Amino acid sequence: MAEPGVVSAVVVTYDALPWIENCLDSLTGVATVVVDNGSSDGTVDFVRERYPAVQLVESENRGLGAGWNTGIRETTSAWVLLLNADAWMTPGSLDRLVDFAETQPRAAVVGPRLRNPDRTLQRSVRGYPTVWRLATEYLFLRKLAPRSSALNAFYAGGFDHDEVRSVEVVMGACMLLRRQAIDEVGECDEDYFLFSEETDWCFRFHEAGWDVVFFPGAECVHVRGASHSGRLYRENLRGHLLFLSKHRGPRVAEHARRLLLVSLRLRGFAFRGERGQAYRDGAAWLASGDAATLVRR
Known about the structure:
A hairpin with a 5-residue loop joins strand 6 (107-115) and strand 7 (121-122). The mean pLDDT is 93. The chain has helices at residues 20-25, 43-50, 64-73, 93-101, 131-138, 149-152, 179-185, 197-207, 233-247, 250-270, 273-286, 291-294, and strands spanning 7-13, 31-36, 55-58, 79-83, 87-89, 107-115, 121-122, 125-126, 165-166, 169-170, 174-178, 211-222. It starts with 6 loop residues before the first strand and ends with a helix. It is built from twelve helices and twelve strands. The strands form two sheets. Strands 1, 2, 3, 4, 5, 6, 7, 9, 11 and 12 form a ten-stranded mixed sheet that branches. Strands 8-10 form a two-stranded antiparallel sheet. Helix 5 runs parallel beside helix 10 and helix 9 runs antiparallel to helix 10. It folds into two domains: 7-124 and 161-222, Spore Coat Polysaccharide Biosynthesis Protein SpsA, Chain A (Alpha-Beta Complex); 233-291. The chain is globular. It is of the alpha/beta class.
């Protein structure tokens, strides 16, 4: 077990009742803050009654990044674990994650290997969005050469998740953050509601000279998509545009909007059912304004 005061955990919940028990049980003995973003399924009462040692903060839902910031402000430890409510650390993994992080003096973020509940690998290393990388994803170009870095850089094609490596982005389902780096670079950007907030933060850490490291010696199980059940596809699109507008400029963001619009219209035509409807709804949103307008809430 990590020394007391070395690491704290922050868990943001929103109707998290199906998974929160697994999550918090995996953090036994760790100072933990749960920030609830307005759950209506009994999550708050369950946490309060079942986990009296957990600090519970009830907050309006201003998004995942805002919830992270709220929780981090309640901690003072050298390291902060950000853990999704639908994720849980495997036995001993948090200790291994912290021990490894302590050997990496320039690591602002360390991410473990993620597993699906059936123990298969969940690919968790990402690249920054660019217009080209979005094209490879949304036009399905990556399927032409699944392990090609040129066509799969957005999802780290060819990276087998079996080696320690400096990366651009690790998935925000489970991230260990160094407080010194947060103090230097600043909090998570709350303009992101859900999706791309960790991408933006990792980019800012890199820009300030810090490192982001993937460490497969620790593992976390993540029920992918359980926290939002696919309901917020528009926010995913908005996250791409916001990142590009902020870091590459409005012209690049507008190019990306047009690319995404064409891509989703094609997808909406090709797919039926709920999936096709999500694409058509996304295309309608992208057609409702330019990138500068769409990134504003």
